[in-house]
Each structure stands twice: as C-alpha cells, then as structure tokens.
Amino acid sequence: MSKKLNVTVWDEREGAIGPYPNGMYTTIADFLKKSGEFGEVRIALQPQPEHGLTEEVLNSTDVLVYWAHCFHHQVEDNIVERIRQRVMNGMGLILLHSAHASKIFGRLVGYEPWKLRWREVGELERVWRIDHGHPITAGVPEYFDIPHSEMYGEHFHIPTPDELLFISWYEGGEVFRSGCTFKCGLGKIFFFAPGHETFPIYEMPEVQRIITNAVKWAAPNGNPPPITGNVTFERPTPSVK
Ligand code: ZN
C-alpha cells in the first residue's frame, strides 16, 4: 500500500470566525481527517513563527491547503518563496477563496491581486460542474447552490487555466471561473473560490467532496525528478541497419 498523504491546512488567522467557533481551519482539517483518505492532517497558522510553515513542516507536507482573505501583505516573502520552491518540486497546493490574491498565487501563476469583480451581499451562488471526467469533480452533482455567498465575478485576470472544472453563477448575474487547475513545475494547483468566512460553506458536503478530491489529485506522484541542465551529446545507435 502506498504511503498516506500528509496534508497541512493553513489559515491567515487563529480562533473563531463567523459560523466556525474553532476556526475555519479546524472544520477543513476535520472533514479531511474524517474522509480516512490521508495520513497526518496538520494545521499551520499565519501568527505562528515562520507562519507555521517551517522547512520541516513544508518538507513533510504532500499537499498544502491554503485559506486567506485579508492579510496577504503580512505573509513574509521568504516563506512565500519557500512554498513556491516546494510546489515547483512537487507539493500540491489547494488555494481557497481569496487565496487568489495571495502572494504565492501571484508568484506561481502571475496574477495581480484583486483583478476581478466582487460584492458581498450574501447572494445565492450556483456552482456548475463543467468537467465530468476529472477526479476533482467526481461525485459532485451537475450543479449545487450555496444559499449565501460572496460574489467573485469575471473578468478574473488569470492566465488561461490548464483545466476549468467549475463555473459559478450569482444571483446578481455575474459568472466566475470558480474551480481551476494550474501546473507549476512538478506541482499541481487547484483554486476553488467558494469559502467566504461569514457563511458556513465548508460545512457543505459538496464543497467537502471537492476539496477532498482536490487534495488527492494534487498529491505528488512519487516519480523521480526529471533531469535538467547541460547534458552530454550521445548519438543514438540505429537499431535497424
Ligand atoms: Zn470572502
């Protein structure tokens, strides 16, 4: 049996928030643990030394789940670079909600923070599953409704994603590429927009299924790293004369 994945759930703040008395990170870590799919599921928080993401923690993390909204600017550049290096070397990265504006997302895919529309009035969000063959969408209905959500709308100023898995429609009329994948180096990245902190969105079974699927999908495949750099010239020997 292959090694179970180690997951680290990261949040930009500690303690209760909105409908999450023990913090959103506890809710996320708990449903990942309950899935029985993973090995160790740890929590790391921005107020901790090195934002909880020491070399030791990151080097033993297969997939990092990253939730952030308001304090991106407080994340130290050397820690961002440490995360980037790990992703380039194969660590999976799940970026939740406003993590689209995080330094790490910007550095990996070249996105400038807050280049999108947004509105916070608690409107309905309908999330459409538009890729029916992808492991991240497995077991997710054709669409599901989030009764109250924050609107993120197009234009979302990202490079064209490698895969577009979900599109959201909002009661106010906007649409958004709410579930996208990117590959950077050896690492796999999934961005999933739903998850505003004042609504219990991470309690929803559909959302839990998507994030659990995404963590499994983003895991490193264990292959040896590819050979790069200057290589010697060797003329291939013809196999047939
Ligand atoms: Zn929000």
Entry summary:
The protein is built from five helices and nine strands; from the N terminus they run βαβαβαβαβββββα.
Q: What is this structure's SSE topology?
A:
Layout: E1 5-11, H1 24-34, E2 38-45, H2 55-59, E3 63-67, H3 77-88, E4 92-96, H4 103-109, E5 117-129, E6 143-153, E7 163-170, E8 175-184, E9 187-192, H5 205-218
Parallel strand pairs: 1-2, 1-3, 3-4, 4-9
Antiparallel strand pairs: 5-6, 5-7, 7-8, 8-9
Helix pairs in contact: 3-4
Bound molecules: zinc ion.
Most strands sheet: 9 strands, mixed
Strands ordered across the widest β-sheet: 2-1-3-4-9-8-7-5-6
Distance N to C terminus: 45 Å
Q: State the order of secondary-structure elements, H for helix, E for strand.
A: EHEHEHEHEEEEEH
Molecules bound to protein: zinc ion
Could you say which structural class the secondary elements and strand pairing correspond to?
alpha/beta
Q: Give the averaged pLDDT, no decimals.
A: 95
Number of strands: 9
Q: What would the principal axes of the Cα set say about the shape?
A: globular
Helix count, per DSSP? 5
Oligomer: single chain
Q: Which spans of ≥5 residues are poorly predicted at pLDDT below 50?
A: none
Query: Cα-atom Rg, whole angstroms?
Result: 19 Å
Helix percentage range: 10-25%
How much of the residues is beta strand, in percent? Answer: 25-35%
